[in-house]
Amino acid sequence: MPFFVVKRDLPGVTPEALQSAGLRAKSCCSEMTTEGKPVRWVRSFFLPETAQTHCYFEAPSRAAVEEANQRARIPFTQIVEVVEMTPEMV
Amino acid sequence: MNDSELAISFAIFAAKQRDASEVEPEHLLLGCLRAISRFGIATLGPWDLDLESHGIDWTRQPDGPRPKVAFSQTVVELLDRAAQIAKSAGESKVGVNHLLAAFANVDDGLMGELKRKHGMASASWRAAVAQLGFTPPVVAQANHPAIETKRARDYLTPEDAAEELGVHVQTMRAYIRSGRMPAFRLAGERAIRILRTDLEKVLEPLNEVKNGDK
User: Fold this and answer.
1) What is the pTM of this model?
2) A13: which chain B residues are within 8 Å (Cβ-Cβ)?
3) Is the ipTM of this complex over 0.85?
4) Which residue of A has its CA nearest to B73?
């Protein structure tokens, strides 16, 4: 299944607000999966110097990732498909 | 799924049941209460809150496709507050007790109704939630002494138990809620089972009842 990165600009965000957003993302992915639209939040990275987050999702389409983030009410600036590469693959 | 995820899942279900387009604070509160409830009763400090009186069918599971719902901005703020409460308590994860504590200063909607109906104040709500010492019901029941002896015994669903006694299933649920009929949950499930040998616990000898009435 494809992977997508969701880019966000979150100036002034607190660790607690990130935790709350994570809880919402997890719940919405679970709900959509129950509905037959599988979306999985894989992991996120917060970049303190730029107040950006990069959140990785596994889903059948970009639209599914967008819907999960809209349901979770987490703002984003861009959603793009990514190709995974790990040290084990090279 | 931990207890806060379970509460949020129930909140989403409550919103969908009401055909709401967003998960509102009322749904989140009902979801939290359902997550800590046993047989439809959420006990918080001195209060026993009957979920059915708030339109929650505690035996129903989400079923079938329903309209999608998003979190309302007010619920986002409540979840943010719950995360702050968890941090203040030195806990790394948000629990259902933190979600409930986030409602302490809410005075409108369902929370306002509960406060008025039960004479709750913000401080007493916080105190009740703090006493919750939340243990998921399934875990609590796994330590129940009766569980140790259940393996070789015969268990019934509430419907089967009602049929065995020749009563309506609603009557059986009332027995379970009142504690007159011992009942158990299957681990990790909402399904309820009753020991066949417990059926006679709701049978009262007619003579004793008459004597007691005198």
Assistant:
1) 0.70
2) none
3) yes
4) A73
